[in-house]
Amino acid sequence: MKAVIGAVLVALAFACGAAPQAAAQPAGKDFTKPAIVILGYGLTPDGWMRPILYTRVLTGLAVAQAFPQSPIIVTGGNPRNGRTEAGEMRNLLRLLGFPANRIIVEDKANSTVQNAQFSVPLAEKADTSGIILVTSSTHQDRADGNFADAGANVLATVSFPDGSPQTNITQFIRDVLSPLTPIG
Questions:
Q1: What's the count of helices (H) and strands (E) in the chain, helices before strands?
Q2: pTM of the model
Q3: Pick from 23, 39, 43: nearest CA to 31
Q4: What angle do CA 144, 149, 150 make, to 5 degrees?
Q5: Mind listing the pLDDT tens digit for each residue in 122-152?
Q6: How many CB atoms lie within 10 A of CB 51?
Q7: CB neighbours of residue 125 within 10 Å
Q8: Helix H or strand E segment including 89
Q9: pLDDT, position 41
Q10: How far apart are CA 98 and CA 76, in angstroms?
Q11: Domain extents for the chain?
């Protein structure tokens, strides 16, 4: 429950202050129509979402509320019991009332590198202005680098705390500053 509350607080902090007005945006930070990319996390052997993945989805959903024109890209393959990470994320988003026409499913990736390689073209095809990357604090640095290497215009990062207090605080500061600084 603490993780869910932390995710919501991080997302709300982002939604309330991380999307600066157009005049205040640094070069290359166009938040007019970002893709919100939620990174997968391994399912249980029975094909169910683990708490970390559930919390990532809730965090991404909170961010998406601030950008009603934007799609959510759910990314992750690694099938378990006939289910994929992306498929289960889509199902949860739909269950929570998120519109199906705003969900883009990438269900082939088996790693963070592939999440980036497969999601960046989907964001471009959806005519988005860049990517807001959603994951957990212990995963964010690697994800940022993988998406930058794949050519993504990462506008901001949003992570929920899942590590040591030092990691969580450091990543929270990076998340808050991410709309104002280069990523990758």
A1: 6, 5
A2: 0.83
A3: 23
A4: 100
A5: 999 999 999 999 999 889 889 999 999 999 9
A6: 12
A7: 10
A8: helix 85-95
A9: 96
A10: 19
A11: 32-180
pLDDT (0 to 100) of residue 89 = 98
- Find, among 157, 126, 165, the residue nearest to 141 by Cα: 157
Stretches where the chain sits below pLDDT 50 are: 1-25
pLDDT score at 24:
46
User: What CATH topology corresponds to 32-180?
Assistant: Rossmann fold (3.40.50)
- Would you state the pLDDT for residue 160? 84
- CA nearest to 6, candidates 155, 137, 166, 179: 137
* Model pLDDT, residue 23: 38
Q: Where are the beta strands (DSSP E) in the chain?
A: 34-39, 72-75, 103-106, 130-136, 154-160
How many other CB atoms are there within 10 angstroms of residue 21's CB atom?
A: 7
Burial class of residue 28 (count of CB atoms within 10 Å of its CB; 0-12, 13-18, 19+): exposed
State phi, psi for 87 to the nearest 5 degrees: -60, -40
Q: Quick one: pLDDT at residue 28? A: 58
Q: What type of residue is 167?
A: T
Residue given tokens 């052997």 in the structure block:
45
Return all residues near 86 (Cβ < 8 A) that are at least 6 apart. 40, 74, 75, 76, 77, 105, 106, 107, 109
- The residue with tokens 């026409």 is 101
Say if residues 154 and 148 touch (Cβ distance below 8 Å): yes
Classify 175 as helix, strand or coil. helix
